Amino acid sequence: DGKRIIFAANEAKRGKQIYLQNLDGGKPVRFTPEEGAKMLSCHAISPDGKSVVLTDSENRLAVYPTSGGASSPLKNLEQGFWMIRWTNDGENIFFWRRGEVLA
């Protein structure tokens, strides 16, 4: 939305955490409830800025709302898939698995 940024940071006691920060100031807010969530793509944020795809502590991909709340695991997606990017309309996400040829 151009008003916030999302970033990963290491905390001494918690390890890597994902934060959201308003650009007009204020403290960063951690919005992932569990530890070990990772943002593995610079294209993880949806075009409307309302969602972000992260891997959870078990390396499963899930969609997290940037406004807070529960994540939604990406069902029927085996481990080992990586996110490429959202479609321009934000309705779909492209994925790939290492060692496989994109068609």
Secondary structure: helix percent: under 10%
Given helix and strand content, the structural type is mainly beta
Overall pLDDT confidence:
82
The total beta strand count reads: 8
Strand order of the largest sheet: 1-2-3
What is the approximate shape? globular
Note down, in words, how this protein is organized.
It is a single chain. The mean pLDDT is 82. This protein has 103 residues and is mostly beta strands. It contains no helices and 8 strands. Strand 4 and strand 5 form a beta hairpin. It is 0% helix and 40% strand. 17% of the residues are buried. It has a 3-stranded antiparallel β-sheet with strand order 1-2-3, with no helix packed on it.
List the helices and strands and how they pair.
Layout: E1 4-11, E2 15-22, E3 29-30, E4 51-55, E5 61-65, E6 72-73, E7 81-86, E8 93-97
Antiparallel strand pairs: 1-2, 2-3, 4-5, 5-6, 7-8
Quick overview of this protein structure:
With 103 residues, the chain is mostly beta strands.
